Amino acid sequence: MIPLIRTVGASVALAALAITSSSFDPSPPADDLTVVPSGIAPQVEAVSRRVVVERVIDGDTIAVTGDERVRLLTINAPELRGKECGSQEASDALRSVIPPGTPVLLAGLKGEPARDRYGRTLSSVLVQRPAGLTNVALLMVAEGRARVYDAYPTSETDDAMTLQTAARAAGRGLWGTCVPSS
Question: In this structure, are residues 70 and 125 in contact, taking their beta carbons and an 8 Å threshold?
């Protein structure tokens, strides 16, 4: 596993820190839903809330508190159902970063599109690591376990493209085993 090149964008990190204060409490009151201005996507606000990962469904989808399904913004991982090349590795990588029981912060989009066509909540997923809050999707791209998916562009899309270019050039993850590097 490579070290994360950078953490989340300043606006999301500041919003997250304002919500979580100095410690990350995974069990907020039921009405703890905070809307904060953010650069997460053009002309929208981020809806941030703390939840706990219940299970990893595949390389870009998790189930959180209350069995809510969350689709990570910015990435697309190979599909387990179709047994696509790299799908098991992507799922395993996501599970190693945010195993069941891990508290995370969801920074989702307010308004459309808040859910995808399968009813999953669209959200950036942030996890507390020693270096600070880390965007899980960017980590997956940096490790070559997922591709950039820009159907719902966010402020992280450009960073993700840069990380993908580096992962592809280095032949990391799916770029070394599933897709020709050239």
Answer: yes
